[in-house]
Every structure is written in structure tokens, then in C-alpha cells.
Specification:
By secondary structure, the protein is α/β, with parallel strands linked by helices. The chain has two domains: 136 residues, Alpha-Beta Complex (Aspartate Aminotransferase, domain 1); 237 residues, Type I PLP-dependent aspartate aminotransferase-like (Major domain) (Aspartate Aminotransferase, domain 2, 3-Layer(aba) Sandwich), CATH 3.40.640.10. Helices cover 41% and strands 14% of the residues. The strands form three sheets. It has a seven-stranded mixed sheet with strand order 2-8-7-6-5-3-4, sandwiched between helices. The structure holds pyridoxal-5'-phosphate.
């Protein structure tokens, strides 16, 4: 079978080799601390599960849904008002099957072959995959230590900015753990206006943010609604990653075009899932806050614990990830991850899998409770690999 040229755009699955090693070690009875994949281990709130169960008992909810029900659109608008103080209307909202799917497809709405798009390096991999599928020409803007791992639009060359169609921004950042500031967002909005660039803000971690910082919407920045859209995922805030609930919110022309594209290939979100989303958006948010506190405890256990054993890892500021520079003596993140799983039984993700500027780092996910994180750190210490 000769597959499409498009398939050549995608490399091999980076996790495969590490996963083979993990399974091999587990089969030998080794204990593995998996801090690799960003799947939350917290519980989904009972009222969300109940709404899904109740809706699933009604036969009418097993049909094609074909659209977002008005109550769902109203719930998203109500949530934006309550949580962010941002006013949006139902024509500024459309659902997708998780931000992963949405980001994977939005380039098809916005780009022609060869159009320039701006992506962070390092970044969450679907940003790259979606733009490649759309045939876009990708310019990577650096997210480096010198700029606090934040976008620096002043450094994007003028000719690139003039050609760029859209720019993806995502803060709190996966894998970097950096968080946005009002000044950074103001610069981005001004840049977008100057060069007529659409900003696509991927807001997956607004509720996982540390040290008293507040996780906002992109639309808290003055003028942002004129230049942008935001992917608003319920996955991490409400621990429902498997239910695939996210929305594209913002500029109504972009939302309408995206809805039109998706209506060619999808018949809408399963109705019981729509009801679960309404329950999440309109229900109490105390569990979300409590969970954020627990993520911070994990962050403290991991970053503080690694520093205590001599690995200088700065505190993550938000997201469920920690971005750790390789310890002295290592330069290849994949080789380091292999060594660490073999010698210490601790699995994390090589920074190189998030883009060229990710080399020299590894990403830890805060997916184990503090006591397990402490055990993992003791195991790294006892392995002697940091010596
Ligand atoms: C930055 C970022 N965007 C999007 C996603 C995917 O979210 P969803 O579950 O809504 O597809 C993730 C998941 O880890 C993520 O880290």
C-alpha cells in the first residue's frame, strides 16, 4: 500500500521505545513511577457523572445530536461570565471533541497550502500536526529561559509577521509550566492587530496555576475578542479527559467557519456528554480549586524534592507539568529518560519530543500523589545517577 504523502509528515511515536522499556521492566517486577503522560488521576465530580448517566437513560439522547443544544451554549457563556468575567454570546461558541481534535482541524479552516503560521517551540505536539495537515509553512517562535519561557513577539522577524495567518499561544504552557502575564498578552494582542494575525489561544490549564496566580481567559486582555479565538477544554479542570469536551470560543466568523468545517465530518457531541458538560459548567467549582491546591503540593514535592537531591529544577508556575533541565553530564533527553527508567524506575518525557528547543530538558507530569513523588525522588537519589 502506498500511503499518502501526508503520512510522511509524521515521525515515529516517540513514546513507543520508552513504553516498551517500561513494560519490560514491569514484567520483571520492577516498580515504575510513571510521571510521563498528562492524564489526571483525580476523580470526576459525582454530579457530572450523574448527569451523563441520567441523560444516557433517555433513548432520545442516543440519536445523532447534529448540533450543540442551546442549554450547552448558554452554559459556556454563563461559565465565561462567572469564571472569567467575560461576556460572550452563543454564536461565539462551538463544541469539538476535545481541544486535540479542534486544534488538529482548525488549520484546515484558516490556511491554504504554504500559508505561514506561528507556533511555539517547544510546544504541545498537535499544534505542529494540525498545521502540517493544513499544508502550512511553520515558523517556530522560541519559548526560552531568557524570556521566562514566554512568547516574545518583538523577536519575530517583520517579514514573517507580515505573512503570518495565525499564531498559536498556550499558557499555562505544556510542557514548560510557564504562565501568562497581562503584559505578555497585551503585546500579543497589539502584534496581532498590527499584522492582522489571528491568535488561537489554547487554554487547557487555566485552573492549574500556582502560588496565588489567577488563570484567566485570553479574552481578559482588552481587544482580544477582536483578534482571537480560544480553545476551552474541560478535560483537566474537571477530570474528564476521556469524555472529549472542549469548545472553540471567540470571534464569531472563525467559530462559524470552524463549525462549518466540522459539520462536514462530524454529527456533533453525544447528547449525554453535552448534559455532563452542562453539569460541569453550571455546578460548584470548589473541587476544581481543591484540586489545584493538590497539584501545587505535588509541584512542591517534585521540584523541592529534586532540588534537595541536587537536581536544580525550578518551580513550575502552572499546568500539570514540570520542565527540568537535564542534570550535569547529560545532553540527550531521550537517552536520559531511558537511563532514568532503567536505573531509578522513574518515567518522564524527553524534551526533544516537543520541538528542537526542548532538547536539553525533560518533562514530568504531576500525576502521582506527593508520597509517591517522594518515593520516586528517593529512587532517583539511590540510583546514584545524579552523582
Ligand atoms: C496544551 C494542551 N492542549 C490541548 C490538550 C488536549 O486537551 P483535550 O483533552 O481537550 O483534547 C492538552 C492535553 O494534554 C494540552 O496539554
Amino acid at each position: 500500500m502506498k500511503f499518502s504523502k501526508r503520512m510522511d509528515l509524521f515521525g515515529d511515536e516517540v513514546f513507543a521505545a520508552l513504553n516498551v522499556k517500561k513494560v519490560e521492566l514491569e514484567e520483571k517486577g520492577r516498580k515504575i513511577y510513571n510521571l510521563s503522560i498528562g492524564t489526571p488521576d483525580f476523580e470526576t465530580a459525582p454530579h457530572i457523572k450523574q448527569a451523563l448517566v441520567d441523560a444516557a437513560a433517555d433513548q432520545n439522547n442516543w440519536k445523532y445530536s447534529l448540533r450543540d443544544i442551546p442549554e450547552l451554549l448558554a452554559a459556556v457563556c454563563g461559565y465565561y461570565q462567572k469564571r472569567f468575567g467575560v461576556t460572550i454570546t452563543p454564536d461565539q461558541v462551538t463544541s469539538c471533541n476535545g481541544s486535540q481534535e479542534g486544534i488538529g482541524h482548525i488549520g484546515l479552516t484558516l490556511c491554504d497550502e504554504g500559508d505561514t503560521v506561528l507556533l511555539p517551540d517547544p510546544c504541545y505536539p498537535v499544534f505542529i500536526a494540525g498545521c502540517k495537515m493544513a499544508g502550512a509553512d511553520i515558523y517556530y517562535y522560541p519559548m526560552v529561559k531568557e524570556h521566562g519561557f514566554l512568547p516574545c513577539v518583538a523577536e519575530i522577524p517583520e517579514d514573517v509577521a507580515r505573512r503570518a495567518k495565525f499564531m498559536i499561544v498556550s499558557l499555562p504552557a505544556n510542557p514548560l509550566g510557564s504562565v501568562g502575564t497581562p503584559e505578555v498578552y497585551e503585546e500579543i494582542v497589539a502584534f496581532a492587530k498590527k499584522y492582522d494575525i489571528l491568535i488561537i489561544h489554547d487554554n487547557a490549564y487555566s485552573d492549574i496555576i500556582f502560588d496565588g496566580a489567577v488563570g484567566n481567559s485570553f479574552f481578559n486582555t482588552p481587544g482580544a475578542l477582536e483578534v482571537g479565538v480560544e480553545f476551552f477544554s474541560l478535560s483537566k479542570s474537571f477530570n474528564l479527559t476521556g469524555a472529549r469536551i472542549s469548545f472553540l470560543v471567540g470571534r464569531s466568523d472563525v467559530v462559524a467557519a470552524f463549525r462549518k468545517l466540522r459539520s462536514q465530518i462530524d454529527f456533533g457531541m453525544f447528547l449525554p456528554i453535552q448534559y455532563a458538560a452542562i453539569a460541569a459548567l453550571t455546578g460548584p467549582l470548589d473541587m476544581v480549586k481543591e484540586q489545584n491546591r493538590k497539584y501545587q503540593e505535588r509541584r512542591d514535592a517534585l521540584c523541592g524534592g529534586l532540588r534537595e537531591i541536587g537536581w536544580q529544577v525550578p518551580d513550575s508556575r502552572g499546568s500539570m507539568f514540570v520542565w527540568a533541565p537535564l542534570p550535569a553530564g547529560y545532553t540527550d533527553s531521550m537517552a536520559f529518560c531511558m537511563d532514568m527508567v532503567e536505573q531509578a524506575g522513574v518515567l518522564c518525557t524527553p524534551g526533544s519530543s516537543f520541538g528542537p528547543l526542548g532538547e536539553g530538558y525533560v518533562r514530568f507530569a504531576l500525576t502521582l500523589p506527593p508520597e509517591k513523588i517522594k518515593e520516586a525522588i528517593a529512587s532517583i537519589r539511590d540510583s546514584g545517577m545524579l552523582a
